Amino acid sequence: MSANETSASEGAKLPPNRTAQVIVVSSVMFTFISYWRTAAVVLCDMSSTVYYIGAIVESAVGKCAPWFILAVLLFSYAMRAVYIESSALFVRGGVYRVVKEAMGGFLAKLSVSALLFDYVLTGPISGVSAGQYIVGLGLEAVARFTNIELDEGTKQALKSWGSVLIASAIVLYFFRQNLFGIPESSDKALKIMIATTIMGVILLTWSLATLVVNGPVNDIPSWKPDLSKKVQINDEGQVVPKINPLTGEQEDPLGFLPRIAPSLAEKLRSPGSWLSLIGVVGLVIAFGHSILAMSGEETLAQVYREVESPKLPNFKKAAFIVFFYSFALTGTMNLIALLLIPDDLRMKEYYDNWMGGLAMQLIGPVSIRLALNAFVVIVGFLILAGAVNTSIIGSNGVLSRVAEDGVLPDWFLKPHRRFGTTSRILWLITGLQLLTIVISRGDVILLGEAYAFGVVWSFVFKTLSMVVLRFKDKHPREFMVPFNVRLGDVHVPIGLGFVFLVVLLSALANFITKPVATISGLVFSAAFLSVFVVTERIYERRRRGAKHEHLEQFNRQVAQEITPESLGLTKLYHKLIAIRSPQNLFMLEKTLAETDPDTTDVIVMTAKVIARGAELIHGGPTFDTYDQQLMTAVVERAERAGKQVKPLILLTNSPLDTILKTARDLQAQEVVLGASNKFTAEEQLDQLNFYWINLHGGRPPGLTVRILSRNRDVTFDLEGGNRIPRIGELKARSVAELRAAGLGVERVLFVHSGTPACSDLFNSVLTMLDPQVVLDIVAAAPSEPHPLGGLPAIDQDRSLAERVGRHVQVHPFEGDSGPRIVQIAREGDYDIIVLALAEEQSAESQAAEPDWPKFVLHHAHCLVFRISCAPVPQELES
To answer: Are 803 and 767 in contact (CB under 8 A)?
Structure first.
């Protein structure tokens, strides 16, 4: 905010005891989480597959399953890079935003419809599986300790309805946690992953010891897939076809293909070479059957908005943790399970719990192995329950993006009155998941067959959109998927194109070979797409042709006074930023970039000005559309930086007085203002000083005031100031890190008069500066030829700099030196101007210097250094 249209004398006439009414604005959008919590949210889904992915893939492609699971998890590192690039482009990224930017609204709605199919199923299948583990453990305990044997029908009924009740309870529990907000739900996810890590370390260590002592039970499996029709051994020991309970037909990993192309199907079952064209197609089909191991990857994009500062580096860390953890746990443990669990037990007794089966095959007493099995089952329950949480978070993110774009009504985005979360979307997700659980009646096979349709197709839409955006949006990126070829201003995406090709082939393979997933996925996606299309049309009619503008929804609380305690300010330092326009928030962006969130609370305020002499509105101030636009812009900057802010709106007839009163009430050490379009910086500072002294009866504490705009950065310390350390000062470990944090000098502009003495000064500056600092020259006078026919002094200096490895750009003289130098310094974003004085200028003759140095001193946007040669000695040699 500018220090506004209120002079000091005008402020003195205001009633001294009048206080401004305050709107305290709150929203869940102002909260952020660490990269460990971010990784935990995603891993609760991806790592939960360790319990069932091995059996699912082996039932489709045979004992080569662990190799294909490892291949998918290795490939997930490439998908990780895709999500990093897309999230760096769009803070609220995810498949919907990326696809819409690249290929339009319809395909965006189609892609998100497919993804929602995955998210709606993730919760039920994880919750039902968790319920079955607990019910199964209970039944086993009853049988072992009471000798009560239940018939198979009773067991199945208890398992089915017990898992329905437990899954429903899990969904409702995590609905409640997400109602509290992402910090609560992510905290639970982190605790679950800590327990899972302990289990993983114990199992891995114990399994390796078992392999060393006893050796593997089974041979190391071949990497070649078995794509034949599936058979099983019945109770009489006969080999019979394995019938799919959903289709009533023999299970076939080739799905629809034998009906479409029977000759091709037969070739795929036994290709001459797996490295031939037919063989590679078979490998792609096997890879597609294993793609479920990457389930949960899309949640990375949905939680990027919540990642705290420094946003992109923390997101990279979270994404790497997800990759490494999934590979080490899911990939490694499935291979070890296949080596240690006998074939007749692995695919029957432990079909849905390989980790529990693995625990029972380790060396050691039976009682200890039973205890380990119980621990594995309990952790399995926890991590599968955590996957329910991940599905709710992911669904909430996806539907929020859709609603923000006007496809769903803003009604869905209305924040919860107490917690500020999108409770209406959470209710919708919870209802869909509970309905799915009840309809399936705990049938995990039904849920599992339909699973993964949305996962792979969301990958296809995402990677294709990122390829399109490489050609459509050529702006520089903070991160790009590696392996690119530069052609003009386009980075041709070789690596990204390869990722797209892999996921497209996998999706097409799944489309043909997974009939249940394909049919159910298409039906569900068509249903959601229809809902989106209809609601968007209805919403467009209500807008009557007006363009949709997304505005955040906020909770508001009116107060007559504010304190650090009432705002929850707990950090050591308090920084107050005054803003006024959504189009001019440079001071907020700059301040957030420099602020350390661990030590400093940031308060953002705007003053709503009422007419002088008018009474404050009775019953409290209003929160109008302009305020909503302004606060929406604040949210965008805060989430881009990943730093929390506390927004305030104050109704007043004296903005500057209100700003300083707020600083006093909140015990702020620094106040940041925008440059005024009515007062000079000096006038602003005079007014601030006057108000600050009056507010404290002539004995004010120190306060640092900063007037900040794109072309101005002025800091003034009232009563000695009270400067807050910037994040670069606190965390930098080298001069280079200080410069990278925006502190110190990166670009220097040397003003060269073309004289030999000025060349001497240039050489001193050249050798004094760090080679990483840019040094350029601007000519303050026309170049004069060398008296002996050599190069002019400026050209000689540039040549010398080039010889020692310093590129120097020379801005030629173009007349009117003062304004020209100031313009070049501002446009070139130089941090310092070095003014070299002529050698003949002594202290007595400085009054005769030209006007342009004075102009530079008074109008430069940056620091100005004045240097001169050593003076001629005035005393005798001793």
So the answer is: no
pLDDT in tens, 614-653: 544 444 567 888 888 999 899 889 988 999 999 999 888 8
Tell me how crowded residue 516 is: count the other CB atoms within 10 A of its CB: 18
CA 255 to chain centroid, in Å, comes to 38
Residue 7 has pLDDT above 50, yes or no: no
Closest CA to 46 of 256, 271, 249, 299: 299
Residue 603: predicted pLDDT: 95
Please name the amino acid found at residue 84.
I
pLDDT, tens digit, for every residue of 274-313? 889 999 999 999 999 999 888 878 788 888 888 998 899 9
Q: Rg of the chain's alpha carbons, rounded to an integer?
A: 34
User: Does position 848 have pLDDT exceeding 70, yes or no?
Assistant: no
Which candidate, 583, 594, 601, 456, places its Cα nearest to that of 517? Answer: 456
Work out the end-to-end distance of the chain between its first and last CA atoms, rounded to an integer number of angstroms.
61
Strands 231-233 and 712-718, how do they pair? unpaired
Q: What is the pTM of this model?
A: 0.82
Residues in contact with 697: Cβ distance below 8 Å, sequence separation at least 6, in sequence order: none
Q: What is the pLDDT of residues 423-462, one digit of tens each?
A: 899 999 999 889 888 887 766 665 666 666 888 898 999 9
As a whole-number percent, the residues of the chain with pLDDT over 90 amount to 38
Query: What single-letter amino acid sits at 555?
Result: N
Is the peptide bond between 310 and the residue preceding it cis, with omega within 30 degrees of 0? Answer: yes
DSSP reduced 3-state for 406? coil
Q: Which two tokens stand for residue 444?
A: 């995990």
What letter would DSSP give residue 817?
Answer: H
Helices (H), 723-848: 727-731, 735-740, 756-768, 793-803, 817-827
How far is 41 from 447, CA to CA, in rounded Å? 22
90-107 per-position pLDDT tens digit: 888 778 889 999 999 899
Burial of 279 (0-12, 13-18, 19+ CB in 10 A): middle
Inter-residue contact 31 to 647 (CB < 8 Å):
no
Give pLDDT, residue 875: 76
pLDDT exceeds 70 at position 2: no
- DSSP classification of residue 328: I
Locate 429 and state its tokens: 């997700």
Assess contact for 389 and 46: CB atoms under 8 A. Answer: no
Per DSSP bridges, beta strands 810-811 and 774-779 are parallel
DSSP 330: I
Distance CA 387, CA 385 (A): 5
Which residue in 691, 637, 640, 685 sits closest to 663, CA to CA? 691
**Rounded CA separation 75/174 (Å):** 31
Cβ neighbours of residue 653 closer than 8 Å, sequence gap 6 or more: 14, 609, 610, 611, 612, 613, 614
Q: Which two tokens stand for residue 550?
A: 């997304």
